[in-house]
Amino acid sequence: MERLESFGKLAEWGSSALSIIFRVSTYVWRRIYPYIEITFTEYAGEHLKRSEAYAAIDAYLGDLCRDTAFRIRAMTSNEGGDNVVFSMDDNEEIVVDLDGVKVWWLASKAVPRVTSIYLGRGAPPEDPRYYRLAFHHRHRDFVVGHYISFVLSKGKQIAADQRKNKLYTNKSTIGCHPYELRETLWSHVPFEHRAKFETLAMEENKKRGIVEDLDRFRSNRDYYRKLGKPWKRGYLLYGPPGTGKSTMIAAMANHLDYDIYDLELTSVKDNTDMRKLLIETKDKCIIVIEDVDYMLDLWNRRKKLIEAQIGAGKVKAALVPKVSDEESKVTLPGLLNFIDGLWTSCGGERIIVLTTNNYESLDPALKRRGRMDIHVEMSYCSYEAFKILAKNYLNIDGHQLFRKIKRLLAENEVTPAEVAEALMHKSGDDVDTQEVADRA
Ligand SMILES: Nc1ncnc2c1ncn2[C@@H]1O[C@H](COP(=O)(O)OP(=O)(O)OP(=O)(O)O)[C@@H](O)[C@H]1O
């Protein structure tokens, strides 16, 4: 017993002695080498939120880890699987030599004093990880004035290069018990569509107008804030099948570097679930509802049927047959509310795109400006659009047959999809103009 006690005391003295040695050596080290230390926990750059600044530093340091292989501790593969993302491990240190200016980066983690279990919903607790940057005080101006902003912009660029946009689709909520526990209402895959505005077959001035509108929208955060309006924009794309509506959405997402949420309305149980889906979307995204006329058509037919039954005295209003549990009960007012109601103010930088093959049949309430700000007609293939497709598929700017094709396109209605198909796997010498015309 006595032995144990003396052993305990010895251990206690040992740890106090170690702590004193550590403090003295730190003090002496600081006297010899007076350095400044910045802790990046609450850092926010001029135009960056805390999380964005942290992500940028993370990416910058991860990239440095890539060059110094012996420092790689944590490796995570992103969802594409073909791009390995490196990051610093806790308590790991990286020394960066910037042409004679030495800086030390240290990754650390705040250990909570009290152990707690987080059971809440919504945002998880703050990330306890943080970075420390140390440097000699004579480099203060360089580090604070130049290096940090360099790290933020470089890190942002690296993160953008690494990041793959995602294509989300909603899981069906029809037939689910209201209390069924679900991790998320959306599932996603990497978005691989390579469509760009440059390769989109469309009149040049129309295309330029859309690109300028998107760029204006993206940079207008303060403008929307000043007006007190939700930072969102509605696009209505209409035209016959195969004129490039889906291709245009992909080009928009690639241009803005946004994720796509492809909302399948027929899988949404009711308006409440639609609101839940909206709340789960992240900022900087395009929410797409394709073939909205199909859904509206369903509602109209259901409404007419019920009205006819009431009119014929077959049923009383109170006894209107219930919609089957297998069908979506989303309504037009629910959709309108989804697009511009209160719920859209829960996030920012969102674009809503509706597509339809039947513009005329759409309810005027859905088409009204302010709700759908930009209406874009995707039309049959013009000669100008054909030249873009010829460049895409055959890499040619002109050909002896172009004049004939111009005439044929003016006389026939051919979709860009049909032209694209005719040009596929052809070389510049065997373009079958008759095939283009035959498809009309
Ligand atoms: N304007 C276009 N520019 C370039 N390619 C196009 C264009 N329109 C169609 N295509 C080609 O045709 C294919 C089908 O087009 P897309 O799916 O974008 O048409 P859509 O209008 O969305 O059709 P739907 O109404 O049937 O959904 C695309 O994969 C693309 O290769």
UniProtKB/TrEMBL annotation:
Keyword Nucleotide-binding tagged: yes
Entries under PROSITE patterns matching the protein: AAA
Cofactor: Mg(2+)
Keywords: ATP-binding, Magnesium, Nucleotide-binding
GO molecular function, one term: ATP binding
Any Gene Ontology biological process: response to stress
Coiled coil: none
Pfam families: AAA, AAA_assoc, AAA_lid_At3g28540
Domain AAA+ ATPase, first and last residues per copy: 231-382
Gene3D superfamilies assigned to the protein according to its UniProt record, in alphabetical order: 6.10.280.40, P-loop containing nucleotide triphosphate hydrolases
Keyword rRNA processing: no
Source organism, top-level taxon: Eukaryota
Entry similarity comment: Belongs to the AAA ATPase family. BCS1 subfamily.
Entry protein name: AAA+ ATPase domain-containing protein
Record organism: Zingiber officinale (Ginger)
